[in-house]
Amino acid sequence: MDENDPWLTNELAGSLQRAGNKVSVVCLDWSGSLSRKKSTFYITSSGTEVFIEKPVAVFSRFPLLSKLFKWGGSSCVASLLVSKLEKKNSYDLVICFSPLVTMSLPAILLAGLMKKKSLLIQWDFFPYHQRQIGMMPSGLIFNVARKVEGFLISRFKYIGCMSPANISYLRSHYPIRQEQTVFTLPIWGAASQLPKSDRSLVREKYGLPNDQPIIVFGGQLVQGRGIEDILETARLAKIQSCPATFLIIGSGLLECLVDDYISQENSNVVRLAHVPRQEYLEIIATCDLSLVCTVRDVDVPSYPSKTIDYLRVGLPIVASVEKTTDYGEHLAALGVGVYTEAGKPEELLRVIDELLKDPARMAAMKTQGPICFRENFEVDSVVSNALKVISAN
Fold first, then answer.
1. What does CATH list as the number for 199-376?
2. CA angle 353-356-360, nearest 5°?
3. Which of the 8 DSSP states describes residue 265?
4. Domain-by-domain residue ranges, the chain?
5. How far apart are CA 201 and CA 363, in angstroms?
6. Beta-strand (E) ranges in 200-312?
7. Which positions ≥6 away from 263 have C-beta within 8 Å?
8. Coil, strand or helix: which one is 5?
9. Average pLDDT across the chain, whole number
10. Average pLDDT estimate for 232-244
11. Contacts of 166 (CB under 8 A, 6+ apart)
12. Contact assessment for residue 206 and residue 283, using Cβ atoms and an 8 Å cutoff
């Protein structure tokens, strides 16, 4: 939505453009920030065309139906725009992100009917994850969503998954055809200049203690992010007089849980609302440890994108993740973090405490983080490898 506050999708488009391609982005503004305009258009500094459409608003007594109608109607709007752009540009490659139901008609049009070379970046295993974290009921609605998503996935020639565990999950839960190419496509980040900041001044600016280690969690405060486990870990840390502050940066439906905890005279948790990317990097660079948390009792293997910024600034990572993911093992193998099983706050606090008491190990992880980022997750390298896969098949 804002070139000055980029995310992974901005970095992907910019990398493709820098590699000599003409890139058009069709974006649906699910946040609803375009309240005065139906659509807008701009060209980024790298030359990428960005078309932003306002989603269709449909209201129902049943929230899930409202969301499904909103997705379907917005997909129709996006498909009309895509049709016009295709006549003008005759695209060679279409890239979509999961869940595909939110862009179903453009996906069918370009990847299915027009048989364009197509790449699906499979991050969200819809609707399995949504059902497991309570965002979707079982039964008819789930089964219809599963069939629709599976059909849309089958339209794509190339599918990039974040890790080998993700590939295994994809093959076991969706109808993957033999002629489809499935490969590992890591999450990525741009190797931009990091902000240079004074640790004491930044902490003072945001009301953070200078005399305690700070453990940061950055991201959306919604279901599936382990917010309850983080707060329980903070509560246990207070009981055990663990001298650490938990900094939570973000907003979302569950921010009320964080604010309620803080309001009960719990000073070991501080929450900052969403801040622009460069400001976010400046803040987390002054922290000591970072948190990656998911939830218990899910089988969808995750690879959280917040990892990228943690590595860029050299923050050791403490992960509390589901048993089915290979994320934790990957962190440990790369020498940039430690992990435990989601849903066990006592164990999470123990791991945090052990790491805080081992400054030599933390220093080694801090040094290794930026190296790991450059070698495994730098966007131009990731994009180059993906295009090689597409060109070779």
1. 3.40.50.2000
2. 140
3. T
4. 8-190+378-392, 199-376
5. 22
6. 214-218, 245-249, 269-272, 289-293
7. none
8. coil
9. 91
10. 95
11. 122, 301, 303
12. yes
Prior bond of 99 cis (ω within 30°): yes
Q: Which of 173, 98, 185 is nearest to 128 (CA)?
A: 173
| Contact call for residues 358 and 169 (beta carbons, < 8 A) | no
In our burial notation (b when 16+ CB lie closer than 10 A, e otherwise), range 107-144 reads bbbbbbeeebbbbbbbbbbbbbbbbbbebbeeeebeee
- At 313 the three-state DSSP class reads helix
Does residue 252 sit in helix, strand or coil?
A: coil
- Beta strands across the sheet bearing 269-272: 269-272, 245-249, 214-218, 289-293, 317-321, 337-341
C-beta atoms surrounding 360 within 10 Å: 7
Residue with tokens 């590595």: 311
- Tens digits of per-residue pLDDT, 61-80? 777 677 777 877 888 888 99
Q: C-alpha angle 188/194/197, rounded to 5°?
A: 145
- d(CA 335, CA 105) in angstroms, rounded, equals 43
Between CA 242 and CA 113 the distance in angstroms is 59
- Domain 8-190+378-392, classified CATH 3.40.50.2000, yes or no: yes
Block residue for tokens 């994108």: 305
307: CB partners within 8 A, 6+ apart: 187, 292, 317, 331, 377
**Four-residue CA torsion sign, 70, 73, 75, 77:** negative
- Can you tell me whether residue 349 is helix, strand or coil? helix
- pLDDT of 284-305, one tens digit each? 999 999 999 998 888 999 999 9
**pLDDT over threshold 80, residue 106:** yes
Q: Do domains 8-190+378-392 and 199-376 have the same CATH topology?
A: yes
Region of 32 please: left (phi>0), alpha (psi -120 to 50) or beta: left
